[in-house]
Write a structure and sequence with these properties.
The structure is a single chain. The protein has eleven helices and no strands. It has one domain: Heme Oxygenase, Chain A, CATH 1.20.910. About 80% of the residues lie in helices and about 0% in strands.
Length: about 230
Amino acid sequence: MSFFERLKAEASAEWRAYTEHAFTAGLADGTLPEAAFRTYLVQDYLFLIDFARAYALAVYKSPQLADMREAASGLSSILDVEMNLHVKLCANWGLSPADLEQATALPETLAYTRYVLDAGMRGDLLTLKVALAPCVVGYAEIATRLAARPGGCAATNPYSVWINEYAGAAYQEVAAAARAHMDRLADRYATPAREAELITVFKEATRLEAEFWEMGWRAGQNALTHAR
């Protein structure tokens, strides 16, 4: 079992709560309220800004040039691909990149980004990669599952663009590379005692991912309640 698979096994409850959240089911069948997706997208844009900072920190924390190149590649993927997807989708609501950047971060966004950056500041590159993994690898797993659902990628599904982006070959390669790099770092630096500490980091980052979905889900449910 790889290092990442051991992390998932130890955090199985947290991983299920995150990857199988009702928000993701709504993405797959197109029933997610627009308010939920809009709240998520705006907050995720703010999240990605700090995620990019975390990858920049990974460059600084890298002990070898190969590690630096891996971190730089991840940073480019965020700045040049993921954030552009958010801009394109939010333009449908008349939101400009400036509007997104100036939005107010909700508590769930602040909690998650601060946790990842703090873990990276206090720990080494492996600790930072473990804190990043639920997002990077988890999105690839979630999107693959949603793409396989009937209608998940249908043109009639308003969320098919999101699903296709993360289920597509380009992002799947990014996630696979991140996972493989983390496994290599673990081979270098993880001891049994360290692994126990890293499992705690992984569990908390995964829990915060589920809270991020929940934030959007609550916004959608509130919008439905007010519409009645």
